[in-house]
Specification:
alpha+beta; 8-stranded mixed beta sheet; 3-stranded antiparallel beta sheet; 27% strand; globular
Length: 248
């Protein structure tokens, strides 16, 4: 029997620019990781029991635990905090990150720092739930958020070995040239994100396409099997030949 999907959340962080498309924060996963080893991904990870407990205590909505997980994982992986009120000073953020790496509960850290959650800072963007056994399957909620200007992202050097701010189009070009690895959901989301001149445009399109579970499916097109997604969810590319699709 296949293992059940692992609930997860990820955060697409935007930095708008006056002279070009927005920069997005991407991290490169360590090659030794069982899932997407060596791939460029958005910060994120599993939704933990503590995230559910925090969401319940905060009276958050159905996706509250996912929002909290996205916030927590982005602090752990990149040292960037969004969705916290008041925003922690850089030295306090570094201390919070160290405590998370040491295994301390996020709720306890927030209480000690006198910080509350501001979950409305995250905008739902997509939900991906692949169905390709026998690989590890994640049921992942994607959120959008503005990155704070005053905090510099830094790699955690454990699960992730590199991070970069890049445009969606530039990372797609790097992948096409063989200089970066991106898995199928990341590629489709980057293609969608490349449509936007800034964060506000991305949010507007996200609000116009209510989140629906995306489970890629196979379809024969002109004699070639393709891995496909629905064509009514805001994605400009909805199919890729199976032989080219990287699935994690």
């Amino acid at each position: 029997m296949a293992n059940p999907p692992i609930p997860a959340a990820t955060l697409v962080l935007f930095r708008d620019r006056a002279d070009g498309p927005p920069h997005l924060l991407m991290v490169e996963r360590a090659k030794a990781m069982a899932f997407a080893g060596g791939a460029m991904v958005f910060p994120g990870g599993r939704i933990d029991p503590g995230d559910h407990a925090l969401a319940e205590a905060a009276g958050a909505g159905a996706d509250g635990a996912a929002r909290i997980a996205a916030i927590r994982e982005t602090i752990e992986e990149a040292g960037v905090a969004v969705g916290l009120s008041p925003p922690p000073a850089p030295d306090r953020l570094a201390a919070m990150r160290a405590r998370l790496h040491a295994g301390d509960a996020f709720g306890a850290i927030l209480a000690d720092e006198g910080i509350a959650l501001d979950l409305d800072r995250l905008v739902p963007f997509a939900r991906w739930l692949p169905a390709h056994a026998p690989m590890r399957i994640f049921d992942t909620l994607f959120f959008l958020a503005r990155a704070p200007d005053e905090v510099e992202a830094t790699v955690d050097a454990t699960e992730n070995v590199r991070l970069t701010w890049t445009t969606a189009a530039d990372l797609l070009a790097e992948a096409d040239a063989g200089r970066a690895t991106i898995i199928y959901p990341t590629r489709r989301n980057l293609e969608r994100l490349a449509l936007f001149a800034g964060y506000d445009a991305a949010v507007a399109q996200a609000l116009a396409h209510p989140v629906r579970v995306i489970t890629p499916f196979t379809e024969d097109r002109a004699g070639t099997p393709h891995l496909c997604i629905p064509d009514d969810l805001g994605y400009p590319v909805t199919a890729e030949p199976m032989h080219a699709a990287m699935r994690g």
